[in-house]
Structures are given as C-alpha cells and as structure tokens.
Amino acid sequence: MLDHLLADLANAMGPDRARAEPLELALYARDAGVQAGAAAAVCFPRHADDVAAAVAAARRHGVPFVARGSGTGLAGGATPMEEPLVIVTTQMNRVLDIDVASRRAWVEPGVLNLDLSRAVAPYGLHYAPDPSSQQACTIGGNVATNAGGPHCLASGVTAAHVLAVDVVLPDATTARLGGLAPDTPGYDLRGVFVGSEGTMGIATKIAVRLQPNPPTVRTLLLDFTAIDDAAATVSAIIAAGVLPAALEMMDAEITRAVEDFVGAGYPRDADAVLLVELDGLADGVAADVAAVSDLAMAHGARNVRVAADEAERQLLWKGRKSAFGAIARIAPDYYLHDAVVPRTQLVTVLREVYAIADECALTMMNVFHAGDGNLHPLIVFDARVPGVWERVHEAGNRILTACIRAGGVLSGEHGVGLEKRDLMPLLFSPDDLALQGRLVDAFDPDGLANPAKVLPAGSRCGEIGRRPVPEGAWI
Amino acid sequence: MSTPLGLDPDELVACVACGLCLPHCPTYRVTNLEIASPRGRIAAMRAVEQGVVPLDGVFVRAMEECVQCRGCEAACPSGVPFGHLMEGARAALASQPIADARRSPLARRATERVALSWVLTRHRVLLTLTWLLWAAQHVHLVPRRLGVPRLRAADLRTPLTAPSGDATADAWLFTGCVMDAWQRGVHRAALEVLGAVGVRASRPGPGGDCCGALHVHSGRRDEARKLARRVIDSMPGTAPIVVDAAGCGAALRDYGHLLGTEEAAAFAARVRDFSEYAVSQGAAEHLVATGERVVVQDPCHLRHVQKAHPAVRDLLGRAYRLAETADDGLCCGAGGAYSVQQPALAQSIRARKAGALREAGADADTVVCSANPGCTFHLAAAGFVVEHPAELAARALSREPVSRPT
Ligand SMILES: Cc1cc2nc3c(=O)[nH]c(=O)nc-3n(C[C@H](O)[C@H](O)[C@H](O)COP(=O)(O)OP(=O)(O)OC[C@H]3O[C@@H](n4cnc5c(N)ncnc54)[C@H](O)[C@@H]3O)c2cc1C
Ligand code: SF4
Ligand code: SF4
Question: Whose Cα sits closest to atom 28 in ligand 1?
Fold first, then answer.
C-alpha cells in the first residue's frame, strides 16, 4: 500500500517529492512539543495542485494526512498520529502579491512570519501577529493555530489579520473561505477555519492584513524585586486606560536564562521584569511612557529603563522571544502550559501555580503575555530522571484546573493539538464537545484530516476502530 | 563509547526542538527540508545513537551536507554546541567506511583525502602546485567558476617582508596554507597596517603553515591534532597571534578544546582576528575617509564562531561608507572545502547571498569586504569584487602623520 501511495505521489508531484526513508520519517515524528508519533510517508508540495493531489492520493489509499509548517507548534498539532501522510508546506514559501494601497498581501502557507514582515518593510508595513517563534514559524501554521504574540495585545491575534484562505478540503476539493471585501456575506467559514489545527483541510494561499509601522515606538524594561508587584503593575497599567502595544512578563529564573543568551542587560537579580512597548504618535507615546513609569514606581519597581535606540530595543525583544528556547540551559526538557486567566486574578493564580510546583518538587518558571492574562507556566525537568513524568503530569493538571477555576481558558494561543486534547472536558460540556464534533465532521466526515487532535476520543462520528494513542505517550 | 557515534548525550538532549535555528541555516533556507536543518541533523544523530534508525547513506549525506557554518549555534537559545556535535559525528564517520550509493561520490572524497593529507600540510607542495595553477590560468585553462583567485606571479615570487620565527616580535602573523599561496597580498596589507601603528610582526617558525580547520571539519581529528601541535610550537612566547583568515582564526581559538591541554588553551587565548587586533592598536585612527562604499559580508567563522565581526566595522567605519546585508549573517556557502564537496548546494546558497549583497548595493564598482579566503574565492567566482578588511585598511592608510582633531 505504501509503495502505491508513494508511486501515486511521485506521479502527481514529481520524483523525490514524496519519501519514506526511516530516518527522514523520524525527523517528522514530532513538533516542538513533547510527544512523538509516526508517519507513513512525507511529501513536499510546491503549489496548491500538489496539495490537492496529495490529499486525493491519501484518500485513495485510506491513509490519513496531516499538514505541517515549520513544526514549531507546542501542542503536538503537527505530530503524526495513526500513521498519516505528512504534507509539508515549507516549499510553498512565496509572497505572491503585496497590495500596498489596500494594505494586504497574498502569501503561500510556508512563508515564515518574519520573512513576511521583512518583505513588506520597504513599504512601511508589517504583519502584526508576532509569535515569539516568528522567525521560524509559518503563516499557515499561524492560521491553523490562531497564533498570538506579544504585539497582539493591542491589535488582536491571527484571526483578526486573516481576510481569506484558499484551502484544500479533506475531500480533495478546493474552496475560498472569506474574501477581501470588508464584510463577506454568509457564514464566516474563514473564522471557523482559523484555529482548526489542520483538522478541516490545508491552507494553500492566505490573504493577510498588513499594518502601517507606528511613527514612534518606546520600549520599557521594568525591574521588580517581587513578582506580586509586577503582576499588580500589569493590572494598574490597563486600569489606567493605557493600552500598550505589548506587555510581557518574565520571572527570575527565565530572566537569568535569557540574559545568559542575549546579554541585553536584563537584571539577573530581579524577581520579575515587565517589558512594555508603547507606540503611536510622539506626544501620546511620551505621555504613556511617563504614566507607565510612574505606575511602576508606585507599585514598587526598582528601576525603569527605556531602550535608547532600535538596537537596544531589538536586543530586549530578542531576549523575550528566546525565552522558551533558553530554558534548556536549566534542564533539558520542558513542559509548557498555555492558559488564559482574567487579568485581575493574575496575582492569586501566580501564587497558586508556584505553590503547586513546590509541592510537586518541580522547577517552574513563568514567561507570559501579561497584558491579556495569557500565562505560560513552564515546568523544566530532565525526562531521564525516573518518576519525573508523573510529577510533571500531576502538576500540569493541577495548574490548568487552578486556571480554569479562576475563570480562565485552556489554550491562549498554542492550540489544543494532541497534548491538551483530553483536557477539553475540563472546559466544555459533552454537548459543547458534540457540537464541535459535528462541525469538524461537516468538513471531514471520514476523519482523515489530522486525526486524534483537538477533540477527545468519542466526540466525533466514525471514530470507532481508531488506533489509540501510542504506548508511553503523555497527554 | 558503545553508541555508533560516541557523542555526548548531554549535548544531544540540550536541543529542545524549538526550531528557532531553522531560518539561520543556509542548507535549510535553500531546501526547506528538515533533514537539511540543524534540528533535523541533531534529531538524526539522536536517532542513530539510540539505534532507532540505521547508520546508512541517508544519514551520512545529512551530515556531509552541513556547511559547518555554525549559524545555528549562534541562533540557539538553548546553547546546543552544534559545532562540537557535528565534528564528533564527522570524526565517527571518518573512522568507519560506509558504502552507500546515497552519499557523496567516491571520487570527490578521494580528492579530498589527497588535498588534506598531502597538499595542505606540505607547504612546499602547495606552493609548487600553485605555480602550476598560475601557469594554467595564464593559458586560460582554469574556468572562473572554480573560484580560484587570479594568481599573480609577482606575489608568489616575492616573500613577505616580516621575519619568520622571531620570538622577540610584538605579534605573530599566522600565514596559513592556502592563504599564503593564493592571497599573499592580504598578508602584505596586514603587515603594512600593523607597521603603520608600530607593531613589529613575525611570521611563524617552521611548521606553522596549516591550522587543520579543514581536517577537523571532515572528521580527521588526529591529523588536526598533529597540525595543531606543530602550529603551537611555531609561535612560542606570549605575544598575540594575529590571524587574517577567519576560518583559521576560529580553528586556532579552538585548540584548547581540540587538544585538551592547558598549553593549548593558553595558546588559543592569545589568538586575535586581524581586525580586532588592529582596532586594539588604534589602527582605525590611521585611516582617512575615502568616501567609497563597501558592502560588508561576515564570514561565519568570524561572526558565529569568533563573534569578532563588529571589529571590521570599527576598523573600516570611518574610512568607508559601510553597507550591511539584511540576511542576519547567513552563510555564503563557501564553508572551507564545502563549495568543492557539495557544489550544487553551495551554489544555491551563494545565489541567496548574492541577492542579499546586491540588495545592499554590491555591484561591479562596489567592493564586498570579506575576512576569509574561502568566502572571497566563492563570492569572486560569482562575479563580485571582494577585498579583505586588511587590504581596505591598507588602501585607506593615511600617508601623513595622523593629526587628531582637538
Ligand atoms: C520558542 C517558541 C515560541 C513560541 N511562541 C509562540 C507565541 O508567542 N504565540 C503562539 O501563538 N505560538 C507560539 N509558539 C507555538 C508555534 O510557534 C505556533 O503554534 C505556530 O503558529 C506554529 O507554526 P508552524 O509553522 O511551526 O506550524 P506547525 O507546528 O508545523 O503546525 C501547527 C499546526 O498547524 C497545522 N498546519 C500547519 N500548516 C497548515 C496549513 N497550511 N493548513 C492547515 N493546517 C496547517 C498543523 O497540522 C498543526 O496542527 C511558539 C513556539 C516556540 C517553539
Ligand atoms: S538546536 Fe537550538 S534552536 Fe535549534 S531546535 Fe535545537 S534547541 Fe532549538
Ligand atoms: S552548521 Fe550551518 S549548515 Fe550546519 S546545521 Fe548549522 S546552520 Fe546549518
């Protein structure tokens, strides 16, 4: 069967575009999350027709398929389950059209987020959603996970920046969801597709909104000796009516790890730091800088540093955006949570989260989009230590339960994928889940598109006979 | 040491698979394939070490296609010592013959062996071959795309003015193998700049003519160690060791690690890139503004490994109008002998670099500045006019006593 699939793919896409070498398959067995699966084959389409041909071939041979961008996902979204065909979009990486006057661009799904911003920079424009992984992740992956980033506080997450998506549906037909008109009539299928994590089809062409670069940008580093003070400052800034472009927080350990990598002058002895970016017209920004500095000092900040120039600003951001990667300096494995809590609950939830980590004897750190209450409690550990997984598991569940109890939700931006799938019932009733199941079924009645993701087993029709999650997998 | 590659498991697990290195990898940028990426190469090493996949031609090729530019290492927030892992993997592969049609052709590997073991380490052989090459060039037998620089008989005939093996000198100028044969003009320029700031430099004594960088890269660590010992002996004392080839400089700086002795570590600590040393001696103040525009290309081993690239700007910034490329210092594809070993990939990578250079303003009249011979040859073969920072500095040297503004 595999040989036939490969032959079909090679036939449709050209030789060497589909492979099943054991080594190469192993490299597509996981994303940046913790859990590995196994692929039957991997293919590298160059345009939408290739993608449609790949989906059709997979169908013909009864093999499921999963789309993959750069594999920077943290929830196992691109992890191949049930031995699928992995359809890699990284060679579909052209910026097709930039419409400066209308401030929009059509791109292929494999364009890297930062490459898009670089491509439009000469026109004084940028693409606003900036996940910390922006140098490496693809626009297709961003659409599929509805990615957020530090600068989504003021401008909204990916969904607010996607106008239209051309997709290959799970039955191998194509469709355009959404449109360039300000308000496309009919159901908002574009909205349904954004965040669908590859379970409703594969995006092959995306129309994104571009933003003009702000005339003035100031970045402030606020340095605290108590994490509670930092959290309180976050609430105070928003309560005062200032809407920063970005408002990020890092705790003591993560700040040190980051400073070891970038050497940006982050205070190594701080208990927490806030990175605040203010942008707009020069006068307004100056007033906001003063207001934020005053609020910080009033809430016990030790120091307020304003980046002197663009280079210093870039270096500070490089630090923040390297945070997840830099933690390997502390321990080789991490488990990252992604939960949103009401901003007013930040102080309480943070305390609780640290207490849980202490009780489970785990090292925990926090780096997060404080402005919108999107916590990223990060547990770092060495998976080679016996018994550690159980403790990580326990702490994870308790943390999420605590967040939800405080009125929060499960996933801020990384998606549900494989890892958070079985936690969905914590947030949704069986009826809610069944409704979501029916929605996916409408797109993918045969359950071939990225199986075993997002919804817990039993939420969809036609699941009987599916293979369970492999032995040793941690969900 | 019972694993197939004998790599350090702690170094391997340091990679958290975040993917932040992907865009900084030249081979990933031109292929967009995981197997040609740093994360993929590390995962491949892990899979082979754990016995999950066989040590076959697919694996060997994934290793051989790496330029060893270490752009990934500089970009990795987790501090994965990629260069070390790759050198280890190469060393393990060099010691076990793997016959598999999917790796690079045998003929190419055989040529490499002759070049590394018989030519680079015997300076006289290299010089003789260089004369033959000069003759061939003279009768137009050497195609330009091979990247061999235009050799000048006068340069080859005239030895450098600096003494050799003079332990009383202020500094040593490491002259190297290919560089001395093909780019002696750069050494001349370096000596001129050092002379202008009153530094008396000596060439190494006997044996100091091949740093072993290419040997380390192709997994021939034992040969590299032998060469390293020779080089250390050729420049005794405590005087700084100035290197005007970024690749050699990076290799010399790694001797402590290669040999694992205190003596080697002490030697490595004396190594300076030419621009770094020249700036520390105040050479920048001796240059006059030329108004000329120059596009700066950072050799990987200057930027990602030695992290000495700012010094080039410090040295030349006042004399030239410097322009930067917008590609985050992505490799040009030269990579020591890489352009010969993996010509197809090297050319795709160079095409990308060429685009970035042109965008920054490099053209027939605008010089590209590069501090490494490999990059220089590789870019010159693509039609760029390439000069070394030492040559540019020498050209801008004030012929008059410096008058400082008060
Ligand atoms: C260091 C680090 C920092 C991060 N920071 C952030 C952050 O700040 N904010 C944030 O939101 N995320 C963040 N992430 C997570 C991740 O980068 C995002 O989820 C990103 O959107 C994934 O893009 P990708 O191209 O890597 O997609 P992949 O990981 O390859 O895939 C992600 C999901 O999208 C699906 N998919 C991919 N391409 C398509 C397509 N063309 N059509 C349909 N489905 C598709 C896959 O099936 C999968 O379910 C971070 C990750 C890392 C490693
Ligand atoms: S090498 Fe470093 S940057 Fe690359 S995937 Fe591994 S941890 Fe991330
Ligand atoms: S050394 Fe260079 S070519 Fe090799 S993996 Fe790293 S970035 Fe890629």
Answer: A71
